[in-house]
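S.,

Sequence below, as promised.
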Amino acid sequence: MKLDFQYIYFKMSKLENEFFNNSKIGIKSTDHIIGLEAFRKSLEKNYYAEVSIGNYALIKESANLILDIKCNFSLDESIFHLNKIKHYDGILTESSPEKTISFLLAYSELKKLNTISIDISELTISLTDTTILISKIYDQSIAEQAENIFTELVKHNLYYTKGLNETPFEMFIPVFEEDTMESDAKMKNIVSDNNSTNDYFGFWGMYYDQTEEAAIYDLNTKTIIHGDIQILSESED
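The prediction came back faster than expected:
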């Protein structure tokens, strides 16, 4: 049975022209963000990557960061690396993050340097064979759940790659079932941060080279189902 899904992701690039040319919609400048270049360089050094950062905040008193991290690694190489990461200079406790500690320390330092509100709206990780797009679903959700997301990427790798036989060329984290988006009120819940950590770990969207239609990976059953993904933007509020 084919199921319909909606992918809730406020993809700013689709609004780029209107957004950048209308000061009432938002600001593009990052000049007011203290330490942003040091943050970028830290990510590049620790993840052997090229990093670009955009800001799509609605007001100058805040920063809504869009991070694009480009790594010259395949998904398999990245998974192998994530599995080999050890404790960070003895700083970590049993419950502390290992896979994302460098990212979280740099992000924490960036926030400390600024008096404005800073959050991450989108995180795109571009590998040689796939692109992973992670969207914010509540306040500070990406920073808070990054470690768990990467842990689940490792844990479920065998299943969403169809037994390591097919790597999706795009992965969307998370997606939501269409029947959970029954009204405008439901959409406003996502915009208003009324979501939970569990929403990251229900369904992920996948696109594979061999099929034109989207696939939905169910983390709970470790199965792939086919359906439709609808990308929504803030212009649809």
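The first helix runs from residue 16 to 20.

Coffee later?
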